[in-house]
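Ticket #4471: structure output looks truncated?

Reporter: J.K.
Steps to reproduce: submitted the chain below (85 residues) through the standard prediction queue, then opened the result file.
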Amino acid sequence: MDFRTRFLAYYRYLKTTDRKWYRHSIAVLLIIGGLLGFLPVLGFWMLPLGLSLLAVDFPIVRRFVRRSYVAFGRAIVKTRQRLRR
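Returned output as attached by the reporter:
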């Protein structure tokens, strides 16, 4: 198995596990790592991953994540349309 397959399988496991404390602790660590994304080892990719894990249990975070994904998708569509002209 390659890295991406293992990563997606573990992420799916985290989203479906009944151990909320485990999911919350991983999510908080990912968010903290995302906030420190300017450091060489950590990256900004950790922030949306941690927020999406928290969105499983918290409706407020779920709304924020959904709105952010929609806004990001619209921005990508607008950018692509501008580049095609």
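Triage note (M.O.): checked the attachment and the full token line is present. Residues 32 and 47 are 8 Å apart (CA to CA).
Status: closed, working as intended.
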